[in-house]
């Protein structure tokens, strides 16, 4: 089974707990520490070793995570790590972290967009872009603008790996491709 499929229910559960407890930062620290540990070659050898019991492996991971995050783990965090390790899902921890980050980012109340324009935007244009994006994403929005004269006109709006290309260059490239294939 693919690691993302295994990781998804764990990540969703942790996210729900973090939402209820308002403990996103704490959970993120625990997930980052545990994901880094299982990515370590020596730790992977230890986890794969049949000579250590699941209970010993669990205690070791919990102890190291406690040391890395610099605080005692709460009951839910300890139970989560025990559950993952008891079910031999340690390899899924990096995927759990990634999915948790994705869910956290999608629920974040503030979004920072990059807006690339063919020319310098006026304050009114920037205000209108912020207003439109805030309505579309139902979040508070900030934008960082830059200029790319090769766009000819229009905009490219980026949020993480999402790109909205409203540039004239993209439209002419699309038209050129359409005409060259027929």
Short description:
The protein is α+β, with helices and mostly antiparallel strands. It has helices at about 5-20, 25-40, 40-50, 55-70, 75-85, 95-105, 125-135, 170-180, and strands spanning about 110-115, 140-145, 155-160, 160-165.
Architecture overview:
- The radius of gyration is 23 Å and the shape is elongated.
- The protein has helices at 3-21, 24-39, 41-48, 54-69, 75-86, 93-106, 123-137, 168-181, and strands at 110-117, 140-147, 155-159, 162-165.
- It has a 4-stranded mixed sheet with strand order 2-1-3-4, covered by helices on one side.
- The protein contains 8 helices and 4 strands.
- Helix 1 (3-21) packs across helix 6 and helix 2 packs antiparallel against helix 6.
- The model has no long low-confidence stretch (mean pLDDT 88).
- The chain is of the alpha+beta class and 182 residues long.
- Helices cover 63% and strands 14% of the residues.
What are the defining features of this structure?
182 residues, 4-stranded mixed beta sheet, 8 helices, 4 strands
Strand content: 5-15%
Oligomer: single chain
**SSE order, one letter for each helix or strand:** HHHHHHEHEEEH
Largest sheet composition = 4 strands, mixed
What is the strand tally? 4
Low-confidence stretches: none
Looking at the structure, what is the overall shape? elongated
Mean pLDDT: 88
| Distance from first to last alpha carbon | 43 Å
What value does the Rg take, in angstroms? 23 Å
Helix content: 55-70%
| Number of DSSP helical runs | 8
Strand order of the largest sheet: 2-1-3-4
Structural class: alpha+beta
């Amino acid at each position: 089974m693919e690691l993302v499929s295994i990781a998804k229910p764990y990540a969703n559960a942790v996210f729900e707990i973090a939402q209820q407890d308002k403990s996103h930062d704490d959970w993120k620290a625990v997930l980052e520490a545990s994901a880094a540990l299982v990515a370590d070659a020596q730790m992977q050898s230890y986890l794969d070793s049949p000579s250590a019991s699941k209970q010993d492996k669990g205690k070791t991971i919990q102890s190291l995570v406690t040391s890395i995050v610099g605080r005692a783990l709460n009951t839910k965090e300890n139970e989560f790590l025990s559950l993952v390790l008891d079910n031999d899902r340690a390899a899924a921890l990096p995927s759990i972290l990634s999915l948790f980050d994705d869910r956290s980012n999608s629920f974040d109340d503030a979004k920072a967009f990059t807006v690339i324009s063919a020319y310098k935007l006026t304050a009114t244009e920037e205000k209108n872009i912020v207003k439109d994006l805030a309505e579309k994403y139902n979040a508070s929005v900030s934008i960082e603008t830059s200029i790319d004269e090769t766009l000819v006109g229009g905009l490219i709006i980026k949020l993480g790996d999402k790109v909205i290309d409203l540039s004239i260059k993209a439209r002419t490239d699309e038209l050129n491709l359409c005409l060259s294939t027929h």
